[in-house]
Amino acid sequence: MADDTIPKDLPVDTFLERVIPEWKDDNRMNFYMQSFKSNRDVNPQEWDAKLTMWSNVIHLACQYRQAVVAKTSTLKQFMTRERREAYSSQTNTPLGWYVVIVCVLYFF
Asked: Which runs of consecutive H residues, i.e. helices, occur in 1-96?
């Protein structure tokens, strides 16, 4: 990890806030939370941006939690984010979480 000064006992969501700038930005995260298009060819830049973001989230969360092998439910939990908007305190998981997990498992 880039920053060894981050405590090892933070919730994953709080850790991700510290290492991924977009994680704090509700507007930007709304883009990442949207589902993937049914076909990558529709908009490859959007597809790749989302996949890259979520792959990084999984990689960093697994590294932080020192998890070599994780269950699908754990990977989904790593991608879950508490909304920061003043009028909302809900928890969000990206609509395309299953696409990310399939791609990550396929390419690694």
From this structure: 12-19, 26-33, 44-65, 72-78
Burial of 19 (0-12, 13-18, 19+ CB in 10 A): middle
- Kindly list the domain boundaries of the chain, sorted by start residue: 12-107
* Residue 82 DSSP SS3: strand
For residue range 47-60, what is the model confidence (pLDDT) as tens digits?
A: 999 999 999 998 89
Q: What is the mean pLDDT of the chain?
A: 83
Cβ count near 61 (within 10 Å): 21
Helix (H, G, I), strand (E, B) or coil at 29: helix
Quote the pTM value. 0.78
Provide Rg for the chain, Cα atoms.
14
| Cα 76–Cα 88–Cα 97 angle in degrees, nearest 5 | 20
Phi, psi of 51 (to 5 degrees): -65, -40
Which whole-number Å values give the CA distances from 29 to 7, 8, 88, in the listed order?
A: 24, 24, 14
